[in-house]
Amino acid sequence: MSPAHVLEPTYRRLKDALLEGRFRAGTKLEAMRLADDFGVSMTPVRDSLNQLVGEGLVDLTPGEGFRVPLLTEQALRDILQVNALLLEQAPDNDHKSLTINEGSNDTRGAYADRLARAFRDIAASSGNRFRVHLVERISDRLHPLRELEPVIWPGAPHALEQIERKAQQGFDGSNRAVRAYHQHIEDLVPALVGRLNQQTP
């Protein structure tokens, strides 16, 4: 295992590159080349890649190595369905909303980052930490695709503003905006997947 002072920045740098779509879907991630690019040994790169496999941001196939996942239309529909269920399901009234200070109510930044924060805050309103964790993992997985949403859907920024406003009302108040968002994205699945898998960073 790599020392934390080497592993953490290597992991963060690689994860940021994946979230920002710097690697085309299906690209093979070669540890040696990445190590050269990052100026570190192969060990922290391999450790980081294995950690990202666990987060669903990298695929590992025996005999083939690490790759950026390809996103199929069915896979995206499955992810959207789970995300919608996590965000729309009524909370247990015995649970109090979780306090998440980082980035809450912050409407600055890129579209995908703002959407991830809004969804995280809605999930936190349920009082369920595991729900928050799952929503955050989904946001990471869909980050490159969400950056394409405003390109394909001109109404995306307005939909985001609606979700952000409703997120401040808590779990119940957000349902309508979240449902409308997911229904629209469902209609755009073919266009989004095609654009994501064909684009060259």
UniProtKB/TrEMBL annotation:
The keyword Transcription applies. Residues 4-71 form the HTH gntR-type domain. SMART domains: HTH_GNTR. Keywords: DNA-binding, Transcription, Transcription regulation. GO terms for molecular function: DNA binding; DNA-binding transcription factor activity. InterPro entries: Tscrpt_reg_HTH_GntR, WH-like_DNA-bd_sf, WH_DNA-bd_sf. CDD domains: WHTH_GntR. SUPFAM superfamilies: Winged helix' DNA-binding domain (SSF46785). It comes from the Bacteria. PANTHER family: TRANSCRIPTIONAL REGULATOR, GNTR FAMILY (PTHR43537), UXU OPERON TRANSCRIPTIONAL REGULATOR (PTHR43537:SF5). This is GntR family transcriptional regulator. It comes from Tsuneonella suprasediminis. The lineage of its organism: Bacteria, Pseudomonadati, Pseudomonadota, Alphaproteobacteria, Sphingomonadales.
